[in-house]
Specification:
Belongs to the bacterial ribosomal protein bS6 family. This is Small ribosomal subunit protein bS6m. One of its GO terms (cellular component) is mitochondrial small ribosomal subunit. There is one protein chain. Helices cover 28% and strands 43% of the residues. It is globular. Strands 2-3-1-4 form a four-stranded antiparallel sheet, with helices on one face. The N and C termini lie far apart (47 Å).
Length: 115
Amino acid sequence: MPRYELCVILKAMQRPETAAVLRRTVETLLERGAVVRSLESLGERRLPYKISKHDSRHTHGGYFSVDFHASPKIVSELLDHLERDIDVLRPTLLKKDPELSQAQCCGAQKKKSKY
């Protein structure tokens, strides 16, 4: 299964409501067979521009990142589900590159002999 990173911007809410939205999002991933590796809060910030979503205009939001492995078949279904969620302002799904081995990363080469 490929590795993905889900970056979501949630509307500004109190901590219990934010936790409920994150729990709902992670449960959605798990129901579809994903393996969640990590959930990271990137903090609450002022949005770079006003976002109109579900008949409301938002100026602040909470930024979160979810790292997970999942089948490529669930990607469009997951994004459709998140677009319909009234608490999610902007879902973005990125496919992460596979980890490079140390030899590929550092450009390790065989030493050439002088002769």
